[in-house]
Amino acid sequence: MIVIMMIAILAGASAAYLGYLPEYILNLSGSLTDWSLILLLFLIGFDIGNNKQSMKTLMSADRFTVLVPVGTILGTLFGGYVVSFITVLAPKDALAIASGFGWYSFSAVMIAQVKGSDLGAIAFLSNVFRETITLLCVPFVVKYFGPYAAVAPGGATTMDVTLPVIEKYAGKRAAIVGFVHGVILSALAPVFVPLFL
Amino acid sequence: MMGMLLAAGFAAKIKNTLFNFSLLALLFFMGVSLGKDRDILSKIADFGIISGIMSVSVVIFSIIGVLIITKLFKKAER
Questions:
Q1: Residue A63 belongs to what domain range?
Q2: Is residue A21 in some structural domain?
């Protein structure tokens, strides 16, 4: 899916840059984006409400399933804030990008809609990089910092893409924590991102 | 709310199709907005560097955050 998503961005950028798109599509792009975003947010709410198994797992889990997401959220936001001192990003923009928690599709479109496509592109890339770094670093994090620390880098992706790697290297217990961690962060990303925009 | 009320199966299929369509449409138009900017080519390297710094920073600090909070909780338990 990530390849198709990248192709969608590149196709849009190339078509507009090379002048292949008719003027009326360029003019309509704002309202088309608004309606697509409303539909996407509705479907995200639908998905969260429909995921009964996640809710059951969430209710039956132990204390680490609450502690690990809290640590991840605090650490991620602090990490985003630190970046505003190193780069040209404003603190609120850096916090908005960080609070995508690795959910590149959602955070990128949300940020692009409010703050412009430049910041949206940075949000997309940084959250894609976060997922990639997670897939690569989980074995090392488990070895040096323990199984629960290995859940943190994945952010919202620990309920799907990065879950198999966590289960393989950190074990089943960490995988359950990781799954709930992903559900909590996926539910909180739509709350946190607009908070900083 | 609707997600809790509607049954899986057919509704899930429609939902997945709509989700993928709206997501790809949004990303396409985000690309259109990027492509409209004539300076986009000179900005791409900056985007990559900032994104790289951001991703490394959030990964490192999220690990530190979890380590601190789990250690604090274990200490408080003793």
A1: 30-195
A2: no
- A125/A115 Cα distance (integer angstroms): 16
Asked whether residue A189 is assigned to any structural domain, the reply reads: yes
Residue A16 sits at the chain B interface (C-beta within 8 Å): yes
Chain B CA closest to residue A148: B66
Q: What is the tens place of the pLDDT at every residue in A56-98?
A: 666 556 777 889 999 999 999 999 999 999 999 999 999 999 9
**DSSP per-residue codes, A38-91:** HHHHHHHHHHHHH-HHHHHHHHH--THHHHHHHHHHHHHHHHHHHHHHHSS--H
Which ipTM score applies to this complex? 0.80
As a whole number, mean pLDDT of residues A94-117 equals 90
In a domain, A17, yes or no: no
Q: Does A28 touch chain B (CB under 8 A)?
A: no
Q: How many domains does chain A have?
A: 1
Residues A131, A137, A143, A145, Cα dihedral to 10°: -60
- Taking the alpha carbons of A163, A70, A139, A80 in that order, is the dihedral positive or negative? positive
Show me where the domains of chain B are located. Answer: 1-36, 39-78
Asked if the structure places residue A138 within a domain, the reply is: yes
